[in-house]
From TrEMBL:
<dbReference type="Pfam" id="PF07314">
    <property type="entry name" value="Lit"/>
</dbReference>
<keyword id="KW-0812">Transmembrane</keyword>
<feature type="transmembrane region" description="Helical">
    <location>
        <begin position="149"/>
        <end position="172"/>
    </location>
</feature>
<protein>
    <submittedName>
        <fullName>DUF1461 domain-containing protein</fullName>
    </submittedName>
</protein>
<keyword id="KW-0472">Membrane</keyword>
<dbReference type="InterPro" id="IPR010178">
    <property type="entry name" value="Lit"/>
</dbReference>
<keyword id="KW-0732">Signal</keyword>
<feature type="transmembrane region" description="Helical">
    <location>
        <begin position="184"/>
        <end position="204"/>
    </location>
</feature>
<keyword id="KW-1133">Transmembrane helix</keyword>
<feature type="signal peptide">
    <location>
        <begin position="1"/>
        <end position="23"/>
    </location>
</feature>
<feature type="transmembrane region" description="Helical">
    <location>
        <begin position="239"/>
        <end position="263"/>
    </location>
</feature>
Length: 274
């Protein structure tokens, strides 16, 4: 018979594994190649001041600002993002194919030299003309909220993963293969059930699902923006549908691997009996 503490380790390991599987999907979404692939494949509006290629590059720059740890240097992160926006604006405002999308004020703001060079101030001037040209204060504040959420959660999620591995190692070391198998089955099974429900919701009403997700993590409500704003043209609805698919696929694949290994452990002869 398994001892009480061993069953407790199994239960805790299952819970931690469930969180880890969900976090793995988030981690896949946060990788730079994921943003690059989805931004490059997502159709962009023709009336944007920027070309599709420029929007894809800006999406990567905004991803870096939003996801990467800033290590106490937020102004440097902002300067890199605004520098990318200003660089794109200088080229786009003189592109004949985009001439109709640039007002005289916007073009002057893009081409006005800053002494000394100050991409943050120049981007603010562009945003003051319209949030079509640069990220305004509200957009940057939302990205800052996302950064605090992601970088704040990352250490806790890493601890959950370490805890799941430790629980599995403890059970294996004490010869509790069946309990280890149960841990590897219970967590992924719970995650599969939750994902099935969420996937059904997203398939039926993606915008409702998207709004509920943002309302949960950003209750202050500063996550809605005009459809023609730079933030939305960089990251349209289909981009987020793709992110959801990447998240779900990553979690599902890892869950299947855990389930398969767990079932195999439970079926092996000579396992412990509890």
């Amino acid at each position: 018979m398994a001892r009480v503490w061993e069953k407790a380790v199994c239960a805790a390991g299952s819970a931690l594994l469930t969180v880890t599987l969900l976090a793995a999907g988030l981690g896949a979404c946060c990788l730079p190649p994921t943003t690059e692939a989805l931004a490059g494949a997502t159709e962009k509006p023709d009336d944007s001041p920027y070309t599709a290629e420029q929007l894809a590059r800006l999406a990567r720059a905004a991803r870096d600002y939003t996801v990467d740890f800033r290590f106490g240097a937020p102004q440097e992160a902002l300067a890199r993002l605004d520098g990318a926006i200003v660089e794109a604006a200088v080229v786009a405002c003189e592109d004949p194919a985009k001439a109709d999308e640039w007002t005289l004020r916007a073009k002057e703001a893009a081409l006005r030299p800053q002494q000394p060079h100050n991409p943050v101030a120049q981007a603010q001037q562009l945003a003051a003309v319209s949030d079509r040209y640069a990220l305004d204060t509200d957009a940057l504040r939302h990205l800052d909220d996302c950064n605090r959420l992601i970088t704040g959660a990352a250490p806790a999620l890493a601890l959950c993963a370490a805890g799941a591995v430790a629980a599995g190692a403890i059970l294996a070391r004490h010869g509790r293969q069946r309990l280890l198998g149960r841990m590897l089955v219970a967590g992924p099974a719970a995650m599969a059930a939750a994902l099935a429900a969420l996937a059904a919701w997203a398939a039926i009403d993606f915008m409702g699902f998207f709004s509920a997700f943002h309302g949960l993590f950003f209750p202050q409500g500063n996550w809605t923006f005009p459809i023609d704003s730079l933030l939305i043209t960089m990251y349209p609805t289909r981009f987020w549908m793709g992110m959801g698919a990447v998240w779900a696929a990553t979690t599902v694949v890892l869950s299947i691997l855990c389930l398969g290994f767990g079932i195999r452990l439970n079926k092996n002869k000579g396992n412990d009996h509890d």
